[in-house]
Amino acid sequence: MINKYLMIHNEIATKIEAGDYTTNSLLPSEHELKEQYGTSRETIRKALNLLAQNGYIQKIRGKGSVVIKNSKLDFPVSGLVSFHELAEKMKEKPRTIVQKFSLEKPNEYIRQQLNVKAKDAVWHVNRIREINGERIILDKDYLNKSIVPHLTKEICEHSIFHYLENELNLVISFAKKEIVVEEPTDEDKELLDLEGFHSIVIIKNYVYLEDASLFQYTESRHRPDKFRFVDFARRNQT
Question: Per the database record, which ranges form the HTH gntR-type domain (predicted)?
Fold first, then answer.
């Protein structure tokens, strides 16, 4: 016999897919669902948590359970893909807004991430990624000027990787990645359309050339409801 919370999950998911609960609408409150299904609040919470995990709803503090589109974009964690390349596969045309473009002396944190010295110059580029009119990614890029001697705002609006590979003839080889979930900063709240979300997914990228030179450090800060982070793994037989 199916568990009660799974039955409730399946019934609500079916209603969302059928359009009975539309995108951006609120589900009934936990108390209302408890009365509707004649069950405990704990069972309702299990069903709602599973709906959130499966991409049907987003639980927002102070609002309740908001129905979201079950169409997250697949973001390849193990791949080394630029946003421009990812955007070409999207049905909706995205937009890149260069919010900051400067050549500066790195602070201590960036010196450690890029393994540069205090006297070295670093390109600092903040790019807001907008999809369907929503600002959902903030990319904070830092590039070593000794490896990337020239950069412009126009290049950053298009694709930095494309410029490096096709104009500077650099061979981008591999990246080390770290994924964390944190509370949004004031900057995140100002530059992204977070709409009450109280967490943000951060992918930290350390990008290397074929000679193992570290030339770029990026913090890619994502709104959590828009992406599904995917990977492919193969087990090695011993």
Answer: 2-70
Number of domains in the chain: 2
Same structural domain, 170 and 115 = yes
Signed CA dihedral, 130, 135, 139, 140: sign only: positive
pLDDT in tens, 180-234: 999 999 999 999 999 778 889 999 999 999 999 999 999 999 988 777 676 655 5
User: What is the distance between the alpha carbons of residues 16 and 28, in angstroms, rounded to a whole number?
Assistant: 13
Does residue 16 belong to any structural domain of this protein?
Answer: yes
What distance in Å separates the CA atoms of residue 191 and residue 187, rounded to the nearest whole number? Answer: 6
The span from the CA of 100 to the CA of 95, in Å, is 15
Q: How open is the CA angle 79-83-88, to the nearest 5 degrees? A: 100
Reported as a pLDDT band with limits 50, 70 and 90, residue 81 is low
| 238 located within any domain | no
